[in-house]
């Protein structure tokens, strides 16, 4: 059994049957687990049987012990349950006693309260009677004309004297004047004297910085008529030495911050006192300062006046925002707004008229100064131009615009002027946002926008476009300078700046008002008007084509395509082709730099189509030998390279077709029909093909005519 216990309970590891059997066999002599021992199965079996019997005995003993412990546990559980029931009964009894005690305490408390009420009912009349007796005693002293009581003669008892005289003053007001005029006069005189003494005492305490004494005196004066005078004295003395720097707004903020920490320790109504201090600062200090700053420039210098008004109003509203942190009563927002309005009302009523007047004169001066620097006198362009231009665009005729004006390369557009105008307008929008009443803000912003449109768009950009249009040379001019594209380039850049200001500064002011649609429509009209005039600049393309014609007429020779010596041609393409392509490339680059968006493609397409027509018609003027035809093909190939710079599919397609047509100038007669039925020429009119074949010098030969018929 001892061995069983040893095997079963050795260590704290969980019981494993295989390991248990292995250990038993190892410890049994002849078990075969030890080295060098002979295996004895009988002895091992005998050991196992004995061990099993010992385990069975041990199991029976443990089972009896378990049953005994279970019976003991059940017995103790019953005893514990019985004890819990007894405790619950005891608790119920204690709770009942507590309820009875609570009811008894409530009954006693009710009796005590009732007794207290009875005592108070007896004591209050007694106190009133005593108080009335004292007041009658003091009243008799005034009636006799001699104040003997210590409370009136001792200066240290001014607080008690003030309380008595305040009550006597109220009583005296109820007495008939004819019988008690003299005593009423004496009481009023004493009331006034004490009031003055208290105010003087408050003033002295404030100068000494004695907060506790100020609080005591203020509490006494609270019931006197002169309490408001006490507050006035406090406000006046608070401001002594507070405004010594140049920044009155910062001084005011510091003063209010200091008083806000102090006023609650002195007065019973600190928010009223602080509000009265702020009102005094606004109506006296700030109003006087604002008037001095604005009246000086109101009639003489509108620019400085507007800057000062904006600055002063902004600093005043910033001060108001700081004061919002303090307790000033229920509706401090309305209170502060009224104070600000009282200061600036006379200046804000006509603000927008001053703003518009200044903006108009300033913008006109900026423009005039620019034109004077150019020694240019603005000329009237005339009316009805837009309709005339629209009709011109509709008809696409080549009628001249009128007498050309030589601008000497000047675009009459200035980045500096534009920046100055936009800066002035930006500042005007900022002032408008700050100084306008919310209900008038969209309307005022629209008026400022109208000024910008008038001077920037109409008087500057539109005038430059009109002048540029008038300066476009006729299509037959030689060595024409196409400055209109420079005008377009600068106008495009300027209008982007205009559009940015529209979105950044005007839109936030009108976004939620009916003026939004009006402004958008006005902007749309301006864009359309300018686009019409820019479209009118398409006549510049006529000038470009004219320049190409002059180059071709001057440089192209008939012998280029019908050389005298067919075997001695050393050039790859003609001189006329080189110069035309160089000119075209410059103009394409200029157009790309002058315009943006879809306008670039539209203009380049128009120029490309006209360029193709010019070359097509030009080639129709010459006769071509075999080597001349090859040279024409080389020229067209170069023109096609130039056409690639347009990056327009239609233009490149036109020159591809023209290149294919030029092959008809050199192809063998037997192959003409095959070439004409090729992919690029199959859809062309037969007359066009025939017109190119006729340009060959050998066209009259019977063989060629027979093959092409």
From TrEMBL:
One of its GO terms (cellular component) is exocyst. One of its GO terms (biological process) is Golgi to plasma membrane transport. InterPro entries: Sec10-like (IPR009976), Sec10_HB (IPR048627), Sec10_N (IPR048625). Residues 52-90 form a coiled coil. Residues 160-708 form the Exocyst complex component Sec10-like alpha-helical bundle domain. Pfam families: Sec10_HB, Sec10_N. It comes from the Eukaryota. Belongs to the SEC10 family. This is Exocyst complex component 5. It comes from Calyptomena viridis. The gene is Exoc5.
């Amino acid at each position: 059994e001892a061995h069983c216990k040893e095997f079963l309970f050795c260590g704290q590891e969980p019981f494993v049957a295989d390991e248990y059997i292995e250990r038993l066999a190892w410890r049994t002599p002849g078990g075969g687990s030890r080295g060098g021992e002979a295996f004895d199965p009988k002895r091992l079996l005998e050991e196992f049987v004995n061990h099993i019997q010992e385990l069975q005995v041990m199991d029976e003993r443990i089972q009896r012990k378990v049953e005994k412990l279970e019976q003991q546990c059940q017995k103790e559980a019953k005893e514990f349950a019985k004890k819990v029931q007894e405790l619950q009964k005891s608790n119920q009894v204690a709770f009942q006693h507590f309820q009875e005690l609570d009811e008894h305490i409530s009954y006693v408390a009710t009796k005590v309260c009732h007794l207290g009420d009875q005592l108070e009912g007896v004591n209050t009349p007694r106190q009133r009677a005593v108080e009335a007796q004292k007041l009658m005693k003091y009243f008799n002293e005034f009636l006799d004309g001699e104040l003997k009581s210590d409370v009136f003669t001792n200066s240290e008892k001014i607080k008690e004297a003030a309380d008595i005289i305040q009550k006597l003053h109220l009583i005296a007001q109820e007495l008939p004047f004819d019988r008690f005029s003299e005593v009423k006069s004496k009481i009023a005189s004493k009331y006034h004297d004490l009031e003055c003494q208290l105010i003087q005492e408050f003033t002295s305490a404030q100068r000494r910085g004695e907060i506790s004494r100020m609080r005591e005196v203020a509490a006494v004066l609270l019931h006197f008529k002169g309490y408001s005078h006490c507050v006035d004295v406090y406000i006046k003395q608070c401001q002594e030495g507070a405004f010594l720097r140049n920044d009155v707004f910062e001084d005011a903020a510091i003063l209010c911050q200091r008083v806000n920490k102090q006023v609650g320790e002195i007065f019973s109504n600190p928010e009223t006192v602080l509000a009265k201090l702020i009102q005094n600062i606004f109506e006296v200090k700030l109003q006087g300062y604002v008037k001095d700053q604005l009246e000086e420039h109101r009639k003489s210098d509108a620019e400085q006046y507007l800057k000062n008004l904006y600055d002063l109003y902004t600093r005043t509203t910033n001060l108001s925002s700081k004061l919002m942190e303090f307790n000033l009563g229920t509706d401090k927002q309305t209170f502060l707004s009224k104070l600000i309005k009282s200061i600036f009302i006379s200046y804000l009523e006509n603000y927008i008229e001053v703003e518009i007047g200044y903006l108009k004169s300033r913008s006109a001066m900026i423009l005039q100064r620019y034109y004077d620097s150019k020694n240019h006198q603005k000329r009237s362009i005339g009316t009805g131009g837009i309709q005339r231009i629209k009709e011109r665009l509709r008809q696409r005729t080549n009628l001249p615009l009128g007498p050309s004006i030589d601008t000497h390369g000047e675009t009459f557009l200035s980045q500096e002027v534009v920046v100055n105008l936009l800066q002035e307008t930006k500042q005007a929008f900022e002032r408008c946002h700050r100084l306008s009443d919310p209900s008038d803000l969209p309307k005022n912003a629209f008026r400022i926008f109208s000024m910008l449109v008038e001077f920037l768009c109409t008087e500057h950009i539109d005038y430059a476009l009109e002048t540029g249009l008038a300066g476009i040379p006729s299509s037959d001019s030689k060595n024409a300078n196409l400055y209109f594209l420079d005008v377009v380039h600068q106008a495009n850049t300027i209008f982007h700046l205009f559009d940015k200001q529209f979105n950044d500064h005007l839109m936030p002011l009108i976004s939620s008002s009916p003026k939004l649609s009006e402004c958008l429509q006005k902007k749309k009209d301006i864009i359309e008007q300018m686009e019409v005039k820019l479209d009118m600049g398409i006549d510049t393309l006529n000038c470009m084509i004219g320049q190409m014609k002059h180059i071709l007429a001057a440089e192209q020779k008939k012998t280029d395509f019908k050389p005298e010596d067919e075997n001695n041609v050393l050039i790859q393409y003609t001189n006329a082709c080189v110069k035309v392509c160089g000119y075209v490339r410059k103009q394409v680059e200029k157009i790309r730099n002058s315009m943006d968006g879809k306008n670039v493609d539209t203009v380049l397409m128009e120029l490309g189509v006209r360029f193709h027509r010019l070359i097509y018609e030009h080639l129709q003027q010459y006769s071509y030998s075999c080597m001349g035809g090859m040279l024409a093909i080389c020229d067209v190939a170069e023109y096609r390279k130039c056409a690639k710079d347009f990056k327009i599919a239609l233009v490149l397609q036109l020159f591809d077709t023209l290149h294919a047509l030029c092959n008809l100038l050199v192809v063998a007669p037997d192959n003409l029909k095959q070439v004409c039925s090729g992919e690029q020429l199959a859809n062309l009119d037969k007359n066009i093909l025939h017109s190119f074949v006729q340009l060959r010098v050998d066209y009259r030969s019977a063989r060629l005519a027979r093959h092409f018929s």
